[in-house]
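Q: Hi! First time asking for a complex rather than a single chain. Here are the components, and I think there are two in total. Is that enough to go on?
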Amino acid sequence: MSARILSPLVALASGLIFGLGLLISGMNDPAKVRAFLDVFAAWDPSLIAVMGSAIPVFAVFFYFGKRRKAPLCATTFHEPQLTRVDRRLLTGAVMFGIGWGLVGLCPGPALVNLLAFEPGVLIFVLALLAGNRIAHWIVGPAK
Amino acid sequence: MINELIPELIGGTLIGLAASLLWLGIGRISGMTGVLSSLFLWREQQRHWAFWFLAGLVLAYPLYKLLGYSAPQQLTSNNTLLMAAGLLVGFGTYIGNGCTSGHGVCGIGRLSLRSAIATVTFMVAGIATVAVMNLSGGVL
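A: Yes, that's all I need. Here is the structure of the assembled complex.
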């Protein structure tokens, strides 16, 4: 099969597996995420195991990939080029962290929960898209 | 103790494998912030993978239910809070170029110092937010 047919299938399968991972691990549950962030009171540290397993698995395959010239179904690797730690990065991370703590949703889990048809999830996702566009209009892409 | 963490470990491993598949398969980083931004750049051919990725991600829930599993979720019913949080997360992840997936999983996996610092920053901000909300005694 050609890369033109295979690459959309790779992206579809990756999204599906990513979503199942979020659901199985409990990352999709805002209450569990907020309990994970509740370090000073009713702390539930179990989500450390999600990051603790996802990161090393990806790290191994990432460095395995670095030894190749190109991905299997595309012509180039698109590794992020930004390395600077500036005010823009830190402001963004702080804003994201506050929003994350307020309700316990980050973008991935919110999108995974979309077809649960919870009105709250829909409100969050619409506001998420609005926030993304407002930042795009006011601030623009990072250089 | 480790037995209780089996769902988290299986889920985390699947997330790592999904990110690896996208990287080795088409050379893309599975960051949800980038995927979201790509929705508005649908005219660009090189962004089309994001639509397929998003389709897979969204279909995971009905598939999971179809397989007979349940995915409990408990979310606040305060719509003002949900709107404020969504705006903050959308704005913050755009200017910070990533969230839990792009900075947290892939960035740290790539040993990017920038991503590691971003991850520590949003974790600390999240922890502080929950602590302040607890102290406010339900006002927030």
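A: DSSP finds six helices and no strands in chain B. Let me know if you'd like any chain examined more closely.
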